[in-house]
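step: validate -> pass
step: tokenize input -> pass
step: predict -> running
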Amino acid sequence: MTLSNIFEIIVLVSLFLVIYTFLLYPFFVFVSAKFINKKIISTPDKTKKIAVVIAAYNEEDTIEDNIKSVLNSNYPSENISIYIGLDGSTDNTFKILQEFVKKNNNIYVYQFERGGKNRTLNKLTDKITEDFIFFLDADLRVQPNTFQHLVGILQSKDVAGVMIPVKIINKDNSNSGSTGEIIYQKFDAFIRYNESLIFSTANSLGTLYGIRREALSAIPDDKVCDDLYRVFHIISLRKRFIFDTKYHVNEVRTKSLNKELNRRIRLVSGGLSTLKAVKQILSPSYGLMSIFVISHKLLRWLTPIFMTIFLVSLVFIDRNSFLYYPLIYFNLIVYGFALIGWLFEILKINFLTFKVFLFFVSMNIGFLLGIIRFCRNKQNSLWDRNKLGDEIKT
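step: predict -> pass
step: emit ->
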């Protein structure tokens, strides 16, 4: 067998895995959900004690409306407690929160030394006594009646976690980061929803999510993604983490291609660390859930490896191979359209097709850099923001 033949096999396997990840697997869960439908019917409940947990760093521009949305969510004030941990904030976030504390006896604010989001969350959850715990980022806005609906879901005996989708409010239609993220989230929401109908979603979202107290576990270190760790930990308990679509949270922080690139780097490096921490869920003993985790997360993270194979193989595959010219056309289209999308981004020209290709290539660059960061053991849960609210350090 020649070197060209070996690379032909590698390319075909890689091609199958890409097609499986983005086409066959979504189709598989969609069809399976038609036969295995374990939909949860929520009976809204306002009588349970709940805790809303917010870890924040320099959120003076977002925290006020965030807290107001929780207070105005139609959940009885006597049954809701808001725990806010500041991870060494240096702006006016604490001063703003002090005004809320003066007027509300159910808000608890703690200032911690700089240590990262995961450590802040662990310190906060140590102080919680409520049975139902909801985690929320400062740039999210809660809709009325959301909490009582989610409490109803969490009371199902086999459910230990629930999350809801996000709607991006400050979206810029000329921005590929915003447009691409919206399209990507719709695609991923389709998969999450069908996985939940079958048993449990295998992916986090980083929006509002809730868990039952008995499923709460300390985040093991500052390398894992906090929300994905909750999902994987609940899967390891053989409980369900439901993606519910009746309500959503609004996200007000603007998106950009650069922000999304940095976020993908952080999510993949942290995601691989999270999977390493809860690696037992990859065991066949977890049945369909191990397939969900491998298909929805691991193979998707590995997509840039497959894309790199498609590019590098051109050096090794014989020109007479049936794959040679299809690979040339594939790479020209993907990277050529992405380049045009990047130029259109600079010129403020709005063309959806090129935006999608630019987002896809940018996403995979982020994935690849995330894999490299994981291999170098450089990931952590520190985050920083500049004056525009951009994440500039992770």
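step: describe -> Confidence is low (pLDDT under 50) at residues 386-394.
step: cleanup -> pass
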